[in-house]
Structures are given as C-alpha cells and as structure tokens.
Amino acid sequence: MSVQAADLLSRCLLSIKRVTEVEAAVPSDGATRIAMGVEYDGSGFHGWQIQEGVRTVQRQVELAVGAVAAHQVRVHCAGRTDRGVHALGQVIHFDTRARRSERSWVLGTNINLPADVGVLWAKPLSLDFHARFCATARHYLYLVVPRATRSPLMRNRAVWVHRMLDPDLMRRAAESLVGEHDFSSFRARSCQARSPVRCVHYASVEQRGQAIELRIGANGFLHHMVRNIAGVLMAIGCGDEPVFRMQELLQIRDRTRGCVTAPPQGLYFLGADYGKEFPIPRLDPGASPLTL
C-alpha cells in the first residue's frame, strides 16, 4: 500500500471513529445532556481516559455520576490529560434520564468522588453540545519553580529546576508561537492528529513569586505539544538555547531536533471555549493553583 493510500485510509478510519463517538453520545427520547466543570489533581491518576487495571479520572467521575443518576453513564471531556497532569476547569458531559437539580448533581457527585477530584458546577445543555467536538479553543498553564533547592510542597504541583530562568528570554521566545504554524517539532511521536497545524491565540510567560507561569491558548493542541514547548522555553530561559531557537524549530518541523519533553506535573488544563449557544461557565483566565 502506498503512503498516500495509507494516509487516506487512516483519515477515513478516524472520521468514522469520530462520527461513531458523536452518535453514541446522542441520547434516546427523554434523556437530558448535562455538562459539568471538573477539577482534579492528576498526581494519583494514569491520565483521564479509562485504561484497564489502572486508576483514571474518567473512571472515578463515571462511577460518581452514575451513583447520583442511578444508572451507568459515559462521560466525554473537552481535553484528555496524560498521567500526572492536572485540571482546573475540565469540561465534561453525559446523558441521563435522571431528573436532578444542578445543585444536586454537584453535591451528589462530589460526595461520591475521591478527595483528588471535584465537580465545580453542573448545567443542562442542548443535545447538540459535545464537550470535545464543540470546543473552539483550549487553554493550558505550565508551572515551573526555578530555585537552588527543591520544593517539597510543590513536588506534584510544579516542575522544579535547580537553575535560574530568565522569564524575559522565555517571553520573547514564546511570542514566536502565536499564529498558525506547523507544530511538527512539538508533537509526540505517538500523536494521531491528522494535521500538525494549529493556531495559537496567545503564549505568555510571567513571574509569580518564585514560580514562572507559561500560559497558552489555541484552537487545538497536539499530543505533548505544551510540554514540548515548555521544554524548549526552559532551555532558552537557562541559556542553553538562544531565543531564536523556538522560531527555528517551527521552521525545521522535526521533533528529533527539539528539546526534552517537560515533566507532566507542571501542566494544568485550564478550560475550553464554546460558542454563545453553549453558556458554559468560564474559568478566570488568570486562575492558578498558586492562588487557590
């Protein structure tokens, strides 16, 4: 089979999978679609998505929501997170015939959740809402603590680097990311996205006390894209790479030429944007685990 034929087959299979997921999410008559905001500490999870034999966020949320609904549910999220990655404003949805108030969904689900996961809000929406496919943008935060000694209190909340970082150099490099680019140099080898092209709406680097915060929003992200970007920015911040290295990597489009993938514990899924037809509560754009 030629490369072109294999690529076409791969795209067709992915399209069929997406259609199947959407159709499976459409409820029968009498069901309601409920959206929720979820916050979690990813330290004790093998990521969001259900996997056999390991603890995942999706599994815990489905069990808790199912206990309130009195039936099994399938939960869909705005952005799947990897092992060790956190969320301040994950958006999910599920379908149910159970009739509960928004307050009951929140309180009842939280009672059945472990201490490292919590529901922030619940809201009934129209049946054409989908937490993943209706999202127009997603937002992430990456947190770094550069200091001579490690922080026991932040060990699972941020990435510690023993060298000092220059936030001004990192900020200048991050400016190159804004706009539509081919992010092949920043995608994981296992990434299954059909296209490496994404449009970054903003990329900022700010000092907050001892910590440095990278905030980035885009119309979509590739697998490990934020962590790979963070790895390059930290190399630039400590002087191992020049500021122009970021622009150079965008032009090279080769992951093997990039820096190391930054650790997961510094990454936070902040939230997703939706059209006006879906009145989803938005997280404060300046939200940070440092101010919770």
Explain how this protein is built.
With 292 residues, the protein is of the alpha+beta class. The chain has two domains: 132 residues, Pseudouridine synthase I, catalytic domain, N-terminal subdomain (Alpha-Beta Plaits, 2-Layer Sandwich), CATH 3.30.70.580; 134 residues, Alpha-Beta Plaits, CATH 3.30.70. It is built from six helices and ten strands; from the N terminus they run H-E-H-E-E-H-E-E-E-H-E-E-E-H-H-E. Strand 8 and strand 9 form a beta hairpin. The N terminus is likely disordered.
Q: What class, by secondary structure content?
A: alpha+beta
Can you give the mean pLDDT? Answer: 90
Output the CATH class name of the largest domain. Alpha Beta
| Alpha-carbon distance between the two ends | 54 Å
Q: Low-confidence runs (pLDDT<50, min 5 residues)?
A: 1-27
For the record, the CATH architecture of the largest domain stands as 2-Layer Sandwich
- Give the number of domains: 2
CATH topology category name of the largest domain: Alpha-Beta Plaits
Overall shape: it is: globular
The percent range for strand residues is 25-35%
Quick one: biggest sheet?
10 strands, mixed
Query: Can you give the helix content as a percent range?
Result: 25-40%
Oligomer: single chain
- Name the CATH homologous superfamily of the largest domain: Pseudouridine synthase I, catalytic domain, C-terminal subdomain
Contiguous helical run count = 6
Radius of gyration: 20 Å
